Structure prediction request, 275 residues.
Amino acid sequence: MKTLTGKDLAAAIRAQAQAEAAAGPQPRLAVVVATADEAGLWYVRSIAKAAAAVGIACDIVDLGPEAAPDQIGETLARLSAATDVHGVMLQTPLPAGASAQEPAAAIDPRKDVDGANPLSLGRLAAGLPAFPPATAAAVMALLDHYEVPLEGRRAVVVGRSTVVGKPVAHLLLDRHATVTVAHSRTRDLAAVTTQADVLIAAAGRAGLIGRDHVAPGAVVIDVGTNPTEDGGLTGDVDAAAVSDVAGALTPVPGGVGPVTTALLLRHTARAAGLP
Ligand code: NAP
Prediction:
């Protein structure tokens, strides 16, 4: 089984972002945070650090875990209206299961660098230009980097969230794959996933995808990031179990994650370059 790491690809994308950022006015990304979720806060800090390294300013706007959806929406609208802010992102999850979709509708689609405004998903589904969520774009970037053929191939996406599963399914359809989306109500998941030439695991369930879920030679992209007891991360795929059946697998950590952050920066540099 080949391991499809994201490290080199992420470095190449960061270099592109840096070159694009240097070509115009300094891009600025604003990240709105309304959570006490440690993993989410860690991710936001890592974005700010990566942004600084490529010449992109990053403001973290922390509203605290008690922020009401209206306040979050107003903040996103204010940042969207600021001429010196080029990218606006809302870190999820929001507290107490609040939906991010209503407040995210306040993000100007031209600054929606993480594809969170429902308009961006609609445009993506319609085949119109839009920033896809960075994670969904990272899945596609990895498939392209490793020259995985998609046209006419069977792709199965496990997960139907608006941030990963649905946009990935649309992007795969655009590339002429035959796409099936599975979710928690799917009966006999293994019967569905073993149909896949390309399997995208985005359920957020550690080890959900085992040996019986993978067809011989399939390319498996593991989007899952599940915390482990020792403070690390593990994917949705049981890597050891699938190693003698899958053709290729992205590692967790070190696969989709670094590419996601790099693409968020490139989206921001591109948003700054929009006329
Ligand atoms: P989410 O909103 O919780 O959605 C999970 C999806 O998986 C849902 O559609 C759910 O089905 C489905 N699902 C849950 N259990 C399942 C099961 N046993 N069998 C089949 N489907 C099942 O999560 P998300 O935001 O899409 O994130 C998914 C994973 O990706 C998480 O681990 C998250 O941490 C990770 N992630 C990684 C990155 C990165 O950069 N690497 C970025 C974003 C997210 P229902 O719709 O029926 O509930």
Q: What stands out?
A: The longest strand covers residues 28-33. The longest helix spans residues 256-273. The two ends are 45 Å apart (CA to CA).
